[in-house]
Specification:
This protein has eleven helices and three strands.
């Protein structure tokens, strides 16, 4: 009976603010220009990734393991852009920086989920390139549509459970220090530091998430490309090496765009002690820019997608030219 009462009083003592105030971009000079820039980024991200999704879904020649990965990346890009930027734009359009507790928890879940999906998708694409170049004769036996679909289903299931566990730990905290979040979205770290009770579990999740979705994927990708470069050295002709390396260029650009801004921000924060405004702008850009650039990189660097777009333009231009000739 005493244990039941103790548990009852412990649950009563949890303080959950009805609303949070997101203060991340409020103190930045000329922030209206930054919001306009974010709107352009959001528009390009949604349109570009939607085009990539449509092309891959419609064209059967792209129903291959590599493009299943590209499809998944575009889906995660759209998800992250919609989870992050519209809430930021609401602050600008309606001059409202308040967000309800439940909406804040949902915002945290979806931003971290889609970001983690991006990270693991880049690892899966590195795996695809590793098998294709290091084990070319066994590629179709190891990597096929079924195996890639199973890999991405496992990625979605695992990441959803990890991020949901992280958010559920926040709901057990008594957030009584303040309801002001010094970030541009419902960020995990700034929120759990508002708690008055024990935050060790949330601190562990913050460390675990950074290792799981930042450090570990980078290590795996770097190691896979070391093996790829060793395999390229064994190719006798320069033409063969360049042809094999060309298949990796798009993926390497995606990896650099996703990981380098985040790593540079962390390093700058440690070495230079960034001001709050500089930290908010740099981290928001590191989240917002990759979904915009990813479809551009794949359209410009992938021969199959460029060929399909050319064919579509030719089909549309033919009726126009026929009507003019008549």
């Amino acid at each position: 009976m005493n244990s039941i009462n103790a548990s009852f009083y412990q649950n009563i003592s949890i303080v959950r603010p009805e609303y949070f105030f997101i203060s991340g971009l409020s103190g930045i000079p000329y922030s209206s220009y930054y919001y306009i820039f974010l709107f352009v980024v959001y528009f390009i991200s949604v349109i570009g990734n939607s085009v990539v999704l449509l092309i891959i879904a419609v064209d059967r020649s792209l129903h291959s393991p590599k493009y299943i990965g590209v499809f998944n990346l575009a889906l995660a890009d759209i998800g992250e852009a919609n989870a992050l930027i519209p809430n930021m734009m609401k602050n600008f359009l309606f001059d409202s920086q308040y967000i309800s507790y439940n909406a804040c928890m949902a915002n945290m879940f979806f931003v971290f989920l889609f970001s983690s999906i991006q990270s693991f998708t880049l690892v899966a694409l590195a795996y695809d390139r590793f098998i294709a170049i290091c084990l070319p004769l066994r590629y179709h036996a190891i990597v096929n549509n079924t195996s890639m679909i199973l890999i991405f289903l496992a990625i979605w299931g695992f990441n959803s459970s990890v991020v949901a566990s992280m958010v559920s730990m926040i709901t057990r905290l008594s957030l009584c220090k303040s309801n002001v979040i010094p970030s541009y979205f419902c960020d995990h770290g700034p929120i759990f530091r508002l708690a008055c009770n024990d935050i060790k579990v949330s601190e562990f999740f913050a460390f675990f998430i950074s290792i799981l979705y930042l450090t570990m994927p980078m290590v795996i990708i770097v190691v896979s490309y070391l093996y790829i470069f060793l395999a390229l050295i064994k190719i006798t002709t320069w033409e063969g090496r360049l042809k094999a390396l060309k298949t990796c260029v798009s993926h390497l650009l995606l990896v650099g765009i996703f990981f380098l801004p985040v790593c540079c921000t962390y390093i700058a924060q440690i070495l230079l002690a960034l001001t709050p405004n500089a930290r908010v702008i740099s981290t928001s850009l590191s989240y917002a820019i990759p979904p915009m650039l990813n479809p551009i990189i794949y359209v410009l660097n992938t021969a199959e997608i460029k060929d399909i777009i050319r064919k579509l333009f030719k089909k549309r231009l033919r009726p126009v030219s026929d009507n003019i000739s008549k």
